[in-house]
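hi! just following up on the protien thing from before. the input was this:
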Amino acid sequence: MNEYFTVENEEGERVDRFLAGEIEAASRSYIQKLIKDGHIKINGKPVKASYRLALGDRAEVSLPETKDLEIVPEEIPLDILYEDRDIIIVNKPKQMVVHPAPGHYTGTLVNALMYHCKDELSGIGGSRRPGIVHRIDMDTTGSLVVCKNDMAHQSLSLQLKEHSINRVYEAVVHGNIKEDAGVINAPVGRHPVDRKRMSTHSKNGRTAITHYEVLKRFGDYTYIRCRLETGRTHQIRVHMAESGHPITGDRVYGPKKCPFPKLVGQTLHAKTLGIIHPRTGEYLEVEAPLPSYFVELLSYISKKFYTFM
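and the predicted 3d structure came back as:
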């Protein structure tokens, strides 16, 4: 399976460091081995791990198939928001990984989709990611579109690239946001030290824009709605944390000790997803209802804290 990456803002960065940040679950040593074995090329030519990237460089990564790994269909219930012959939109629950990766080879959304859709999933994403055109984090809930054929996959990929998909999230964050609405425009890239995290302080960050509005204030917490103008990895989590209002329950970007011990992961929900349907060309929008954990948290803090709005 080949994957391709174009250098947009990473000029001068080592190729092994760049690709370790771009390829999920890939360590830098693994990337270096791929380079040594000739599985990585820049602009069609082999390079060394120390190669410094130039603007516009195109990296081609040939990922060896893992022969002893078989992704099998699993009968896992799906909360389906919309489905037709081209796409399926699901409401992903908390603690479900989207596609198989080291440490998560079963119980993923892909395992469930393979059982539900049989052979009707696009092949562009490869054997481990059939139908997957975009992802949300394991502990982020909500709407996610999956493609059943390559035509739909190509259409949705283009919409993602052009930032034309309407993605609206809701979250509960720490602190009292004073403004009723605002825009955070801060590039997001790999953390300069911890490559598994993202940061607005990366020298090679990509343009990232998040629009937010306050839905309700609780003094110590604020209930907000966010609309993504871009879709960088961990974008909302990073933007809110570095603006001083990390998402409640986010132990990666927020307080290590959660004030609500029973809360698992960040209180972030992909509520609205709007796309241009790949076959009809018409706008299609779905909404994923707030999950029970989110509703229960709102109910608890509304009783415990004075509501300002």
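The longest helix spans residues 292-304.
The two ends are 51 Å apart (CA to CA).
cheers
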